[in-house]
Every structure is written in structure tokens, then in C-alpha cells.
Amino acid sequence: MTFSPITHLRHFDLAVPDYDKQVEFYGKHWGLTATSDGSDLTYFAAEGSPEQYVVRVRKAGEKRLDLVSFGAANRQSVDQLAGYLATAGVKLISEPGNVQTPGGGYGFRFFDLEGRTIEVSSDVEVRQHRKIEEREDIPVRLSHVVLNSPNPEITLAWYEKHLGFRLSDTLNHPRTGDLFYFLRCNDQHHSMAIARGPHASLQHASFELRGLDEYMRGSGRMMRSGWQKLWGPGRHRAGNNTFTYFLDPNGNTMEYTTELETIEEDTWHPSVFNVQDAETSDQWGTANDMDDFITKEMFNDPDQGLYIAPPV
């Protein structure tokens, strides 16, 4: 690809069987704001983000990742990307046109190589947002999404070739090989990542808080409320961001983070970090050890929506 059409991550959309508990989780506990809701569909915004919404929850019989949405600079970039993907043999779900979700815009959807629905859009109306204040322990924005793949090297190459993502860093195990690829589309260390897993699924989604104090307060609030903490608090080496991971009511992993590294595009050189080095996972040494239980939970359930476009 000779151009990089993707500017940023907009939102991710989930379908879940236990809809009411998922809606309560995001609105009452996680710190998001419901901006548009109905009996079977709710949109959640982050108070500090200009995006119309950062998560959409849909009631469904089977759990799935409905889609991941990215922003593009303008309509020309959207059209250029759609034309390129069609020529490259990528299956388009829709042609570029008006987006029928809050904020409108101009965009289209397509399947990635493993069957996930991806949306790219521009000209979405900016939501009225605000500055998150000191000690306010709610998400400022959606930070990144991580996708499990049984063939992460092939998935990495696909996103590099077709969407212009750039590799920031890699996590490697000396015996089993590469486990995790961090990908960027702007100066944030990663807006998405590809993790090695037994099947295609959402590994986790991460939300940026205002700063260290707010991150710790948010993590503590979730723990005091009885939500199952998988891992953290700690600070990763790749990306230099903090982490605390929790399970949501439908078994998806959600992360609080802050201080994700920003990089200089022209001078950055990707590193390979050994996961057997304790500081790769947690520079502080404060988090519980990564174990088989955490790994299994982050593998998540096999995605039931591959090559099936969501109804909304």
C-alpha cells in the first residue's frame, strides 16, 4: 500500500447474550455514558472523547465481536481505500456511502482475512466532549483493541499491506516464537495489536484514563465493587503503559490504562521483547504473575460472527 488511510481507532461493537448486565457494566461501573439506547442496542461514549461512541452493545443469542471501526481523513481516502481493497480481492460488505449510526459520516465495511467486520469512515460529526478533571476515574477515550489470531504473522501482514498499519514492537518467547504484535496508525504506540491464540476472537479492549492517580483510583474502584481482576495493576514494557484487566459480565477482557507511549515516526525502530523477562510484562513488579488462567480468559470464546456481517 502506498498510502496510510487509517487515522485512528473509533469504536468496537459487541453482541452479547447477557445484554442488560453488559449495559449496566459499561454505564454504572466502567464509567462510560450511554448516548443512545433502545431495547436491544446501546451506544456508549467516553466523556473525554470527540467520538460519538467508543463501544456499542447489541443483544444477541450468541456472543461475537460485531465490528472494529477506524477513522479516515476524508471521503477521498475512504473511496481510495475501498477501490484498493476491491482490486486486492478483499470482500466488501458495503460500498462507500452515508453511515447510518450516530454521528453519520461517510464510510464502508469489509471483512478482514479472518472474517471480522471492519469499518472505515470519515466526516463523522464530532461529539461535544469535555476535559476530564483531576481524580475523575472514568475513561477519557478508547485506547486500543487486541485481536486473537491462530495465524498472527499472516494477520499482521494483512493489516500492514491492506490498511497501512506499522509494526511498533513484538513480544517473543524464545521457544514458541512471536506472541504479540503491536500496530500503530498514528503517533500512539499501538491502536491495535494481534495476539497469538487458538481461534479468532477479541483478546481485550483498553480504555485510557486521565493519569496515574485516576488509573489507580479506577482500578481500585472496580476491585472494591467485586469485578474479577485478571491482571494488574502494573506497567508494560512495550508501549510503557499501565494495565489492569477485568472480566466483563459476558467474559470479555476490558483494560484500564494510561500513559501509552507516543513515538516519532521517522526515528522509531521496532524492538523484540522477551516475555520471559519479568519486566517485559510488568516493569513495576506489582502485578500478579501471568498464568494459564489469565491466558485462557484472554483467549476468549471463538468469535461466532466471522464472515457474517452484523445486522446494524
TrEMBL record:
Its EC number is 1.13.11.39. The lineage of its organism: Bacteria, Bacillati, Actinomycetota, Actinomycetes, Mycobacteriales. This is Biphenyl-2,3-diol 1,2-dioxygenase. Keywords: Dioxygenase, Oxidoreductase, Plasmid. Transmembrane segments: none annotated. It comes from Corynebacterium occultum. It holds the Pfam family Glyoxalase. Residues 8-123, 141-259 form the VOC domain. GO terms for molecular function: biphenyl-2,3-diol 1,2-dioxygenase activity.
